[in-house]
Amino acid sequence: QVQLVQSGAEVMKPGASVKVSCKASGFTFTGYYVHWVRQAPGQGLEWMGWINPDRGDTHVAQNFQGWVTMTSDTPLSAAFMELSGRGSGDTAFYYCALSFDSSGRFDHWGQGTQVTVAS
Amino acid sequence: QSALTQPPSASGSFGQSVTISCTGTGSDVGGYNYVSWYQQHPGKAPKLMIYEVTKRPSGVPDRFSGSKSGNTASLTVSGLQADDEADYYCSSYAGSKIYVVFGGGTKLTVL
After folding, report:
1. Residues of A in contact with B50 (CB under 8 A)
2. How many DSSP H helices and E strands does chain B contain?
3. A 96-115 residues with CB below 8 A of B?
């Protein structure tokens, strides 16, 4: 079955960057969208952007433009999200999620990666 | 502040029904039939429960149903069970530029 497995928790200092991975299995890793969603402690969900691994194009939400980069490695069936930790406000769980079309639904989710930004 | 408005909490007795609302605008909920609902248990990833307003993914019980009227979508959970106690988030497609917006979430308590 479809499974998304994310890399482990990270601690980073403000101004540093971290790269979170999301490895997919159980389906052909092309023709789909991989999304990234942020959830700050005790808060709701916030869509960050998507990457289409097949085409390599991305769409990053305005709030995350300039400090989030999304990439993919199709042979590895993996997607990556690199973010620059601006401050403690970026401390959150970061989820990857898979969609089979561009209608805005997220069919499958990774387990989440906790990123802590602290000096 | 979330783009879609949900009540922060909802509750219902075991076996009863509860409905959670999700209010947006004509640019999201009212403009597209692409409303989704997600269930999130504490410490877990969200799970898709409803998509395209009324459709259920394989494996989701038919106790979960969705509807929409104008700019407000709703999730109804009938025959409440203990495991239904969770946070529920709505989302809507909002056009190719913004793409998707979420509600702030509703904590469902089963009494």
Report:
1. none
2. 1, 9
3. 97, 103-112
Residue B94, φ and ψ in degrees, nearest 5? -135, 30
The per-residue DSSP string of A20-82 comes to EEEEEESS-SSSSEEEEEEE-TT--EEEEEEE-TTT--EEE-GGGTTTEEEEEEGGGTEEEEE
CA-based radius of gyration for chain B? 13
Sequence-distant contacts of A61-70: CB under 8 A, at least 24 apart: A61/B98, A61/B99, A68/A36, A70/A34, A70/A36
pLDDT tens, residue by residue, A26-68: 887 677 999 999 999 999 999 999 999 988 899 999 999 999 9
- Is 70 exceeded by the pLDDT of residue B46? yes
Checking if the pLDDT of B88 tops 70, the result is: yes
Q: Tell me whether residues B48 and A107 touch, CB distance under 8 A.
A: yes
